[in-house]
From TrEMBL:
Signal peptide: none annotated. This is Tetratricopeptide repeat protein. Pfam families: TPR_16, TPR_19. InterPro entries: TPR-like_helical_dom_sf (IPR011990), TPR_rpt (IPR019734). It comes from Halopolyspora algeriensis. It comes from the Bacteria. Keywords: TPR repeat.
Length: 127
């Protein structure tokens, strides 16, 4: 695949993820992952597609790879937290979303953290 073809495939996959068509996006993204697995943007897009298709373990691995490549990526931490939350791993999710909200004090991040905190409070009340 040429550089131009890789960019085109990435953009097409990005569009499909935005349209909530993650399985199609992953098919198109597969050769891009083979070539550019060390690119945070490629891993982030793959992680989002995995998350949207409920492939939580794959999503987690992709988001962890983004954080390994770029520890300052607050969005990767947010979606990693959401992925962990979907797996019922609330304490781990809280840690990642808290970090994301600290790095990037956006109301949406605070809302996500509040949601996880509420789930944890309910879970702790039932123990």
């Amino acid at each position: 695949m040429t550089t131009e073809g890789t960019v085109e495939a990435f953009r097409k996959a990005e569009s499909l993820v935005a349209q909530r068509r993650p399985l199609e996006a992953l098919q198109i993204l597969e050769p891009v992952l083979d070539i550019a697995s060390d690119k945070p943007s490629v891993q982030l897009l793959a992680g989002r597609a995995y998350l949207f298709s409920a492939q939580f373990q794959r999503a987690e691995l992709a988001f962890l790879r983004v954080i390994e490549l770029d520890p300052s990526d607050h969005y990767a931490r947010l979606v990693l937290g959401r992925t962990l939350q979907r797996q019922g791993r609330l304490s781990e999710a809280q840690t990642q979303v808290r970090l994301a909200a600290t790095m990037y004090p956006d109301p949406a991040y605070q809302e996500a953290l509040g949601e996880i905190n509420a789930h944890l409070a309910v879970a702790n009340a039932h123990e």
